[in-house]
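Reviewers asked in the last cycle whether our approach scales beyond single polypeptides. To address this, we selected a multi-component target totalling 455 residues and predicted its structure end to end. The input consisted of the following lines:
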Amino acid sequence: MGEYPLILFTVLSQLSAGAAITLSLLDYFTKIDNSAGKKSTLVVLVMIALSLGISLLHLGHPFNAYRALTNIGSSWLSREAILFFLLGILLLVYYFQWKEENSFRKSLGLIISVVSVLAVVSSGMVYVLPAVPAWNNFSPILFFLFTGAALGPMFILLMLKLTNGAFSRLVQFTAVILAASLMCFIVYVSVLLSGSGASASTGSQIVGSGIFWPRLLVNWILPLGIFAWLTFKRISPDRKVVCSLFVMVFIGELLGRYLFYYASVALKVAGL
Amino acid sequence: MGFLVDAERCIGCHACEMACKNEYQSEPNVRWRKVYPINETEYSLPERNHLSLACNHCEKPECLRVCPVRAYTKREDGIVIHDQGRCIGCKMCAMACPYEVPQYNVRLKKMEKCNLCDGRLDQGLKTACEAACPVEALSVIDFNGFTKYGFVIALPGFPDPSITKPTTRFIKPRIGAQVRRDQ
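The resulting structure, written as structure tokens, was:
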């Protein structure tokens, strides 16, 4: 099965974390309809449970996965599992708080935001390994955070009926995140290619891969082109446009994660 | 404890690999010890040399750090032991080891690696690879009483030892003199 469960797990869990942060911050700073908020919380919760379930398929012994919670002292994989598990529990409590005006829910939302960021950071830290020079830096954390920040707000835009002001601000935020992630990706690949050994090989594998250009197109060029066109024509995006953008970026992130796992070159005995 | 690999003596016969597989009846895709050819261009004169490597029982083992289920432990004598009973087959250790030591057993769906024949050593026996080497290129050294000089911590092709501080030591191959006819 290779790394496919990990591709799905990381993208879905980061999407869920981004959506949880967006929802809780919107709830804190604006007014959200209770039933829509409750429904969105449930969907995010189901996505986290689904992503954790999918991650088990990567294991040789999925029924013993509970043991992965035992080495929190040094293993980032343990920390990641615990934080996503904790995020799920917090979202479950959050789900039952969707009644009238509720200050506890708003405070809980802030805690959920912090745990979501920590969970995504710990997901990135799992891959910060000296044995894989292309990963042994800030890039896994940065790109995982970008995934959550690009997909989460768009997902919540599709779940909630927001006022025009909040809607357009979230769309603008997504456009800025996509532009920033494209810039960082260009710098990252350039740095890899200018290096030597395993780093340069990883850069060559990324650029030489058949999905490099399709990824660039659906993850960044098309969505940013649509954003630019809408801005130029002064058209406010509607839900159909956001839905199309979400699908494009989601597919782009899946392709990007495939590249992340399959293009990485580890240190090897007797050279490359 | 660690391995001392004499690259001058090693003839690349793979007897150590086979002895290890025979001792532990490991799966066809699994080799706890591997013999790698050293790139002939690494030295001033082309030479056929080999690097016989198993687990390096590192001072700072990455496998032990990243394992989420505490399947790895380091004994007081330095041997890094992998407990298959705890392993869930997440392959994190394989990703983190710069020496490609932990390997996935497709039948058991768990990782496995060289435990420096801990059972044999505890009985006072030599490791299977050491006992099988026909040219005595392999030995196990105890760093507490190790006073021998002339070894190095890496040979060409051996990934950066500063990452995990492997305990394997090497004796460099002697490169022969180049004989040229007079002009």
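The radius of gyration of chain B is 17 Å. We regard this as preliminary and will revisit it once experimental data from Aim 1 are available.
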